[in-house]
């Protein structure tokens, strides 16, 4: 089998390597000195709120945007100096499905095959193969505009896979999808990872990062504020959060202090959420959950609600950085203020 | 679509050796042509998906020919001598020039639509020459224009136009195609720079209207005031129309021909790099 010419540059240690990347839009700093690495064959989840700079990062790494300073390599190719070679080794699935809606699914894939220099016969075979793999064979001849959201996203993923990319960029691959469709897309991404593709995934959801990524970079206002192996971060965040709301708000602080003093909740600390009047306890295991619940009952206070939940983005931020995710809800990042940076 | 059972290993991916040997990633000419071809196919499939998009190319030559020949043709013909039949011989070559301008506009509107969907990001993250996307757009628009020209000539013959010089006709069509391809770079630039298809259309109309009517396309310029004649003399649409007229029905050609070719080359030389640059740097 003749290999497609998509081998990484020689001597590439990391599939993706980013150093001091800065990008301004006028006054606002979308990226404010980002450093990160993705090891070959792993999935890095870039977790952050809207406007944190995730999409800007992906657009720079896929050569759609030029950084103001800093440098980045993908599969050993420099984004600024070797964009043509770089484009041959990447796949990109954007936040908005980037397929031609007027074309049938098959034609979309065939076109991209031809644009990637596959001979006609191979481009046809690859289109058939990927439609089959992404369960779109029945819809092959229909225009993509008639597809459901999930089908369109799958077609988009299939389009990204045509050139057998070494590195795949997934920019919020499930934003706007319903839970069932989201699970479908997750399953497909896991299969791709199983094929040995290196993935950089941006997401707003801890759950998605947990499902797909092995390492995590938490990004806020254009800066990486925390990073590392996902299990380690989960331990710092607490795998789950036990949320206890005492009936009497005056019990809030004493309860939190006592639970903290128990010293059974591992690495992270108990926090108080004044807005909802709850104590948040990071829980790493079922044993800890049992112990904490026992301690609460032993205090003999009235509890109006108790629940466990996976950490939300906000809680991840709170635990990892000591402050809430602060970027605005639109796509513009505000200039970073003088907040201290949390060492990773 | 029979290869549903094919597995990845069975597919022999044989990359163009030429493309592979370019260590610096430069895209060879053959690859350029292949990419442009794939994108032309895409745009032709759009037409198959949406045949209504050809209505303008079909109806414009019919409507304008009927309008100018039967509504204005009698009076203008009378004034210039030769009557309506004489006017048909005058206006049809002008129509070829007009069509090259009006249909060129479409290249810009379609383009800004592409930018507003994610598909342009996909193209720009692929290892293809950025020019391919633009060349493909222009090629498809030229195909539409040749279709419209064919319709125009059929209508022309039906209303009494004499094709007495076929090589001249082909030369005139060739010249207007050349001019149209140069004008398309202007509209492509607008398509990249302006935000939506509507503004491209509005802007295009502003450019087109004075150029089309301040020319010798529809009527001889002798009766126009001096200042307007000064404009029409330098208007490339006048020289294109006059050259087409000379080629198709006889008369002096050389001067208008060279001026039109000069305009086309100059517009392309200036606007093609601008369009490609704007396209490259658009974020």
In short:
Chain A is an alpha/beta fold and 344 residues long. Chain A is built from eleven helices and 14 strands.
Biggest beta sheet summary of chain A: 6 strands, mixed
> What is the averaged pLDDT score of chain B?
84
Query: What is the fold named in CATH at topology level of the largest domain in chain A?
Result: Rossmann fold
Structural class of chain B: mainly alpha
Structural class by sheet pairing and helices of chain A = alpha/beta
Q: Descriptors for this entry?
A:
heterodimer; A: alpha/beta; Rossmann fold; 2 domains; 11 helices; elongated; disordered C terminus; B: 283 residues; mainly alpha; disordered N terminus
Description of the molecule:
The complex is a heterodimer of chains A (344) and B (283). Chain A is an alpha/beta fold and 344 residues long. Chain A folds into 2 domains: 218 residues, Rossmann fold (3-Layer(aba) Sandwich); 83 residues, Alpha-Beta Plaits, CATH 3.30.70. Helices cover 34% and strands 25% of the residues of chain A. In chain A, the strands form 3 sheets. Chain A has a 6-stranded mixed sheet, with helices on both faces. The longest helix of chain A is centred in the middle third of the chain and has 16 residues. Chain B has 283 residues and is mostly helical. Chain B has one domain. Chain B contains 12 helices and no strands. In chain B, helix 3 runs antiparallel to helix 4, helix 4 packs antiparallel against helix 7 and helix 11 packs across helix 12. Chain B is elongated, with a radius of gyration of 22 Å. Chain B starts with 16 loop residues before the first helix and ends with a helix. The relative contact order of chain B is 0.12. At the A-B interface, helix 2, helix 3 and helix 4 of A face helix 2 and helix 6 of B.
């Amino acid at each position: 089998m003749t290999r497609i010419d998509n081998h990484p540059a020689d001597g590439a240690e990391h599939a993706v390597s980013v150093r001091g990347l800065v990008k301004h839009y006028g006054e606002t700093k979308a990226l404010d000195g980002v450093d990160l690495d993705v090891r070959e064959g792993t999935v890095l989840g870039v977790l952050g709120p809207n406007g944190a700079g995730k999409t800007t990062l992906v657009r720079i790494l896929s050569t759609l945007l030029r950084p103001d300073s800093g440098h980045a390599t993908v599969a050993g190719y420099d984004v600024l100096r070797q964009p043509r070679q770089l484009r041959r080794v990447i796949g990109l699935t954007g936040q908005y499905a980037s397929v031609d809606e007027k074309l049938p699914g098959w034609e979309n894939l065939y076109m991209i095959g031809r644009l990637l220099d596959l001979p006609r016969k191979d481009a046809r075979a690859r289109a058939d193969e990927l439609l089959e793999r992404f369960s779109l064979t029945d819809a092959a001849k229909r225009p993509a505009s008639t597809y459901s959201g999930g089908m369109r996203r799958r077609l988009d993923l299939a389009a990204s896979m045509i050139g057998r990319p070494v590195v795949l960029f997934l920019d919020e691959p499930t934003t706007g999808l319903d839970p069932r469709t989201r699970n479908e897309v997750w399953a497909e991404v896991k299969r791709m990872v199983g094929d040995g593709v290196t993935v950089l995934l941006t997401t707003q959801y801890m759950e998605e990062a947990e499902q797909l990524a092995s390492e995590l970079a938490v990004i806020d206002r254009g800066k990486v504020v925390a990073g590392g192996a996902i299990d380690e971060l989960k331990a710092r965040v607490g795998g789950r959060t036990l949320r206890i709301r005492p009936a009497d708000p005056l019990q809030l602080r004493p309860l939190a202090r006592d639970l903290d003093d128990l010293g059974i909740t591992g690495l992270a600390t108990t926090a108080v959420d004044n807005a909802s009047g709850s104590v948040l306890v990071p829980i790493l295991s079922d044993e800890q959950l049992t112990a904490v619940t026992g301690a609460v009952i032993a205090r003999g206070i009235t509890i109006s609600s108790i629940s466990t939940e996976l950490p939300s983005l906000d809680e991840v931020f709170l635990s990892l950085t000591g402050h809430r995710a602060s970027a605005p809800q639109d796509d513009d990042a505000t200039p970073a203020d003088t907040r201290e940076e949390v060492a990773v | 679509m029979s290869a549903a059972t094919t597995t990845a290993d069975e597919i022999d991916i044989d990359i163009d050796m030429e493309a592979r040997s370019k260590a610096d990633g430069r895209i060879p000419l053959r690859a350029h042509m292949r990419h442009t071809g794939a994108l032309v196919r895409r745009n032709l499939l759009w037409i198959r998906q949406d045949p209504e998009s050809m209505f303008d190319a079909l109806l414009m030559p019919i409507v304008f020919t009927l309008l100018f020949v039967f509504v204005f043709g009698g009076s203008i013909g009378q004034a210039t001598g030769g009557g309506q039949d004489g006017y048909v011989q005058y206006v049809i070559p002008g129509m070829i020039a007009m069509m090259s301008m009006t249909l060129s506009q479409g290249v810009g509107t379609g383009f800004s639509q592409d930018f507003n969907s994610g598909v342009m990001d996909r193209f720009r993250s692929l290892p293809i020459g950025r020019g391919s996307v633009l060349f493909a757009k222009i090629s498809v628009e030229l195909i539409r224009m040749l279709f419209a020209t064919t319709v125009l000539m059929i209508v022309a013959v039906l209303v009494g136009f004499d094709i007495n010089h076929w090589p001249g006709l082909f030369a005139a069509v060739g010249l207007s195609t050349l001019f149209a391809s140069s004008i398309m770079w202007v509209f492509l630039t607008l398509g990249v720079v302006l935000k939506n298809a509507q503004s491209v259309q509005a802007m295009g109309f502003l450019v087109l209207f004075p150029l089309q009517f301040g020319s010798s396309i529809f009527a001889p310029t002798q009766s126009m005031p001096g200042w307007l004649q000064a404009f029409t003399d330098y208007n490339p649409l006048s020289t294109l129309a006059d050259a087409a007229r000379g080629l198709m029905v006889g008369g002096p050609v050389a001067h208008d021909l060279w001026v039109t070719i000069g305009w086309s080359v100059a517009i392309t030389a200036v606007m093609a790099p601008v369009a490609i640059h704007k396209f490259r740097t658009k974020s």
